[in-house]
Every structure is written in C-alpha cells, then in structure tokens.
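User: Predict the complex with adenosine-5'-diphosphate.
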Amino acid sequence: MDTRGILIVVSGFSGAGKGTLMKALLAKYEERYALSISATTRKPRPGEEDGREYFFISTEEFEDKIANDELIEYARYVEHYYGTPRDYVERQLAAGKDVILEIEIQGALKVKEKFPDTLLLFVTPPSAAELERRLVGRGTETRDVIESRLQRAAEEAEGMSRYDYLVVNDNLDACVEQVHAIICGEHRRCARCAAFISDIKRELEEL
Ligand code: ADP
Ligand code: 5GP
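Assistant: Here is the predicted structure with adenosine-5'-diphosphate placed in the model:
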C-alpha cells in the first residue's frame, strides 16, 4: 500500500539473540526485508566475513566516513566504533524494502531523531540469567569482555521504555513471527497509508 519501505531499528543486549533472530527472519521473509550491514572497527569473530556480518575497517577509515557524512549514525560501543552506511539504506527504502538496522541504543535514538517514523524494537532474552548463559555459551568473548557487555546491558535497560515494542526472544520461531507481525501491523497504520486513503476517497466520490 505504501510504496516506500519502513526503517526498523532492532536493539537489544549483547547476547540477546538479535543476530540469530535477524538471520531467521531474513531466511523466512527474504523478499520483504533488507538488513543493513554496519561498518565497525572491531575485529571479526571466528566465522564472520568482511561484507557479510560487518564491513571491518580501520579507525582511520571509519573517521574518514564520519568526515564525509557517509554514515546515518555511529556510536562507540565497548571501545569500538560502529556505524550505519547511508547509501545502502536509502537505496533499499526507495526500492520498497523494509530496512532493518541492528544497532545499539545511542544509534537507535539518533536514527529516531533524524527519521521520526522509524519503528524501534527492543529484543531481550526472558531473564538476565539467560542473557549471561547465552553470552558465555556463544564462546566468542573473554570473561572481561562479557563483564563489560553485561554492565553495558544494565545501562541499556534504562532506555528500554523509549522503544515502540519489546520482543522477548524465548522460542526463536515464535519470536520471528512476532517481529514479522509487528512490522505488518506498522504498515497498516493510517498515517502510513495516505496514498490508499486518498485513492479510495476519490473512488467513492466517483461512484
Ligand atoms: P546478539 O546478536 O544479540 O549478540 P546472538 O544472536 O549472537 O546474540 O546470540 C547469542 C547466543 O544465544 C548464541 O549462542 C545463540 O545461538 C543463542 N540464542 C539466540 N537465540 C536463542 C534462543 N531463542 N534460545 C536459545 N539460545 C539462543
Ligand atoms: P557486536 O560487537 O556484538 O557485533 O555488536 C555490539 C553492539 O553494536 C550491538 O549492540 C550491535 O547492535 C551494535 N551495532 C552494530 N552495528 C551498529 C551500528 O552501525 N551502529 C550502532 N550505533 N550500533 C551498532
């Protein structure tokens, strides 16, 4: 109905399962969504590929992108830069795709300020104990980094109520359906259906 895609931000504590959830959502609804690939100065984890999970770049390259206004937003997270490249997001939205940014809270709030009709989703595991289990179970960070991320989670929890929807990632498949349903609902907001409303008004007058 609305031809332009919706900009969707997905945030959540590190280890909540955002990456897993996004992968499953895109596998099921590939034609509907485009997942933005961020640039970061952190090093790839085992199994991560440049241009697939992130564009892994140096601090100098990242600072050049900031200077050239190539990023919609950027933030520092536990000692590294992370940012969203502008070009891809704008092209996919214009092509009618719903574009998902999987970013942390400072970036999320900046995007919402710039583009107020952005949909903000916050993903959480069912409990803090489960969050710690998932972070440890992933086995990709040292105990020190896990501690920093848990501390950051406590800070991020302060901002949860600024999001539009809370998504509890307990059963993964149910969670995928829940996210898809929220986004479908968002498309049906009358404020996003101005073109349909003006068409049907004209048709009714012509009856
Ligand atoms: P994030 O991207 O939010 O940091 P990940 O997607 O890397 O989190 O998930 C963290 C860990 O939790 C991974 O080991 C993943 O397999 C696991 N995980 C993700 N979703 C679930 C779920 N619904 N139930 C149990 N474990 C999960
Ligand atoms: P990770 O190192 O676990 O991949 O990501 C750390 C955090 O950075 C996560 O909360 C993730 O959502 C966030 N992040 C990833 N890309 C971006 C980005 O482009 N901008 C911002 N602001 N945060 C990002």
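The chain has a mean pLDDT of 95.
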